[in-house]
TrEMBL record:
This is Fructose-1,6-bisphosphatase class 1. PANTHER family: FRUCTOSE-1,6-BISPHOSPHATASE-RELATED, SEDOHEPTULOSE-1,7-BISPHOSPHATASE, CHLOROPLASTIC. Mg(2+) 1 binds at E84, D103, L105. Residues 187-319 form the Fructose-1-6-bisphosphatase class 1 C-terminal domain. Homotetramer. NCBIfam families: PRK09293.1-3 (NF006779), PRK09293.1-4 (NF006780). It comes from the Bacteria. It catalyses: beta-D-fructose 1,6-bisphosphate + H2O = beta-D-fructose 6-phosphate + phosphate. Pathway: Carbohydrate biosynthesis. SUPFAM superfamilies: Carbohydrate phosphatase. It holds the Pfam family FBPase_C.
Length: 330
């Protein structure tokens, strides 16, 4: 079986980007070890700190963030980095060709219950000149690589460099990520949806109607029944969608008018949207294709509706002109 390095060579990925992706892969192996040790390593539980999102940082959030920062600083190919756990962008090397945005441990609320967590990364070209937050504010369409590593029963990487979406499985014996699926393809139709139903009363009317029709199933306009899953870790829900189809959405809600969206654009929505599109799926904010959103801030959030192409289209058809007025966040 082909390993990650051999796959990158076969895709004719330039040496600098290939080295960077191998650094991310090697770091994810160390993160996988840290996650697996859990309570035995005293890494569970929360710190006293809050991140820029106002969320209490788990010990593993901080540990994994430091692991990635240290690895990327030593890599030599990185101009700068942005992390969910860092208030500001971090300059790394004036010679680096790439910017890396990452969520070091997505789903960290799952850590203490031994449920799925993962690392999400997005690689952008580094523009010339001084490094500022503006350097990172490039559309998802401009990514040169994107992926995640899922720390589940097996440790798996999903990766795209624009040559489709590939799955790699970490071989515990060799320590190599081996290519286990070359061209991941999302089924265009599905009978499975993923949403946090507890927010139902806060959604906008079109999403309430769309989900209500899924729940009515064969008795309603969809004329068939649907199943629901919610892992509370985007990395787990998106992996399921890539594996067997589905629609995943964290839509606009008015639970907190100052925060109508939950998921972060630069290091959650954009990398996942590219993986999904490269697998034949669709990814929308409800107002526009996620990969075409012009970022305005490194920690900006967006609504996300992604997965099986025909089901995403059906969901969007409920929105029509209702979604023409995107909520404005001060
Ligand atoms: P945490 O990393 O803080 O657990 O958040 C995970 C996440 O950003 C995303 O991965 C999940 O899909 C979503 O939040 C879950 O949100 P709810 O906890 O509101 O269901």
């Amino acid at each position: 079986m082909q390993n990650l390095a051999q796959t990158l060579t076969a895709q004719a990925i330039n040496a600098s980007l290939a080295d960077l992706l191998l650094t991310l892969a090697d770091t994810s192996k160390a993160i996988s070890q840290a996650v697996r040790h859990g309570a035995l390593a005293g890494v569970l539980g929360a710190t006293e700190q809050e991140n820029v999102q106002g969320e209490t940082q788990k010990k593993l959030d901080v540990i994994t963030n430091d692991m990635l920062k240290d690895a990327l600083k030593a890599d030599g190919n990185v101009r700068g980095l942005a992390s969910e756990e860092e208030d500001y962008v971090v300059e790394v090397s004036k010679d680096g060709k790439y910017l890396v945005c990452f969520d070091p441990l997505d789903g960290s609320s799952n850590i203490d219950i031994n449920s799925l967590v993962g690392t999400i990364f997005s690689v952008l070209p580094a523009p010339a000149g001084e490094l500022t937050e503006q350097s990172f504010l490039q559309k998802g369409r401009d990514q040169v690589a994107a992926g995640y590593v899922l720390y589940g029963p097996s440790t798996m990487m999903a990766l795209t460099t624009g040559n489709g979406t590939q799955f790699f499985t970490l071989d515990p014996n060799s320590g190599e990520f081996l290519l286990t699926q070359d061209q991941v393809t999302i089924t265009p139709d599905t009978a499975e949806f993923a949403i946090n139903m507890s927010n139902q009363r806060f959604w906008e009317a079109p999403m309430q109607t769309y989900i209500a029709d899924l729940l009515i199933g064969e008795l309603g306009p969809r004329e068939r029944n649907f199943n629901m899953r919610w892992i509370a870790a985007m990395v787990g829900d998106v992996h399921r969608v890539l594996c067997r189809g589905g629609i995943f959405t964290y839509p606009t809600d008015n639970k907190n008018p100052q925060k109508p969206y939950k998921l972060r654009l630069m290091y959650e929505a954009n990398p996942m949207a590219w993986l999904v599109e490269q697998a034949g799926g669709k990814a929308s904010t409800g107002y526009q294709t996620i990969l075409d959103v012009q970022p305005t801030a490194i920690h900006q959030r967006v609504a996300v509706i992604l997965g099986s192409a025909n089901e995403v289209d059906t969901c969007l058809s409920y929105h029509g002109q209702d979604y023409s007025q995107e909520p404005q966040v001060d």
